């Protein structure tokens, strides 16, 4: 049913909590797991303390996530992309033929449009496949 599962990750608590659901789904359906982290390019004039703008931090995050799943007996692929998180997540889902995206209910990022429009909400509205949101 879910041949390919995309799990976008950041450093949020919600991502860590969603990892258990990802493990269960991937094991149940023998899915291919693709871990994605998006390096967000900060606005030119704004100094950012956001760790998700550092390629080094994102690479380490992906490495740690891959180790976590490996410890559960799950092989995973990792992708690191630059761009706006919601659009990049949906583009990658389309690119890899994802059957399911699993993500936390609220990650670190909000869109430029404001606090009411989270990356998760954008992904739900733009995704080419079903999205499982873990509260």
User: How would the global form be characterised?
Assistant: globular
Approximate strand percentage? 25-35%
SSE sequence, one letter per element = EHEHEHEEEHE
Biggest sheet: strand arrangement: 3-2-1-4-7
Q: How is the main sheet built?
A: 5 strands, parallel
Broad structural category: alpha/beta
Distance between the termini: 23 Å
Helix share of residues? 40-55%
Total strands: the figure is: 7
**Contiguous helical run count:** 4
Radius of gyration of CA atoms, rounded to a whole number: 14 Å
Q: Compute the average pLDDT.
A: 87
Sequence stretches where pLDDT stays below 50 over 5 or more residues: 108-113
Care to describe what's here?
With 135 residues, this protein is of the alpha/beta class. It is built from four helices and seven strands; from the N terminus they run βαβαβαβββαβ. The strands form two sheets. The chain has a five-stranded parallel β-sheet with strand order 3-2-1-4-7, with helices on both faces. Strands 5-6 form a two-stranded antiparallel sheet.
Keywords summarizing the entry:
135 residues; alpha/beta; 7 strands; globular
How do you describe this structure in short?
The protein has 135 residues and is of the alpha/beta class. The protein has 4 helices and 7 strands, in the order E-H-E-H-E-H-E-E-E-H-E.
Secondary structure layout plus pairing:
Elements lengths: L3 E5 L4 H17 L2 E8 L15 H17 L4 E7 L2 H12 L3 E5 L5 E2 L2 E5 H8 L4 E4 L1
Parallel strand pairs: 1-2, 1-4, 2-3, 4-7
Antiparallel strand pairs: 5-6
């Amino acid at each position: 049913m879910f041949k390919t599962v995309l799990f976008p990750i950041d450093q949020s608590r919600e991502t860590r909590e969603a990892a258990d659901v990802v493990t269960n789904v991937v094991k149940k359906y023998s899915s291919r797991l693709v871990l994605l982290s998006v390096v967000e390019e900060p606005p030119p004039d704004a100094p950012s303390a956001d760790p998700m703008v550092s390629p080094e931090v994102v690479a380490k995050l992906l490495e740690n996530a891959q180790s976590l799943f490996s410890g559960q007996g799950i092989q995973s692929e990792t992708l690191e992309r630059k761009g706006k998180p919601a659009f990049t997540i949906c583009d990658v889902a389309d690119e890899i033929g994802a059957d399911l995206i699993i993500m936390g209910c609220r990650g670190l990022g909000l869109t430029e449009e404001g606090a009411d429009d989270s990356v998760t909400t954008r992904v739900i509205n733009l995704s080419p496949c079903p999205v499982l949101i873990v509260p």
